[in-house]
Design brief:
By secondary structure, the protein is mainly α. Helix content is 35%, strand content 6%. It has a two-stranded antiparallel sheet. β1 and β2 form a beta hairpin.
């Protein structure tokens, strides 16, 4: 029996993570581990008219323009939006306004692990 090391390309793992994050954004939290997000405030469309009737966190597309990076033993998925961190943590109230927590990075870990397992099986069969 020959031995060979199994290597799943980290770029493929990064893409699986990216799909998981994108699923959370598209489903407005329903596909993540953090539950459904708080509805948009009635004030938001008044302040930002293009958000009226739109999906949460998807008005401009900047937040969902996800980028991946990999190293020799790490994978990263990030958003170029400067305000992305505020969505993950939420903000405190200042007067009447605040930003509720809508953690778009709260992926369904089991779903991603299943996809990674599928990648490992593909590698074993090669």
């Amino acid at each position: 029996m020959s031995r060979r090391s199994m290597q799943i390309p980290l770029t493929e793992l990064a893409e699986e993570l990216k799909v998981g994050v994108d699923d959370v954004i598209q489903s407005e939290g329903r596909d993540g581990s953090d539950g459904v997000w708080e509805e948009m405030s009635f004030v938001t469309p008044l302040i930002h008219p293009r958000r009226e009737g739109g999906a949460l966190l998807q008005a401009t597309g900047i937040l969902a323009n996800l980028q991946t990076q990999t190293g020799s033993d790490w994978v990263e998925v990030s958003s170029p939006a400067k305000y992305a961190g505020y969505h993950i943590t939420g903000t405190r109230r200042f007067g009447r306004r605040y930003m509720p927590k809508r953690d778009f990075m709260a992926i369904d870990v089991d779903k991603v692990l299943d996809a990674m397992g599928d990648l490992a099986l593909e590698e074993i069969r090669r």
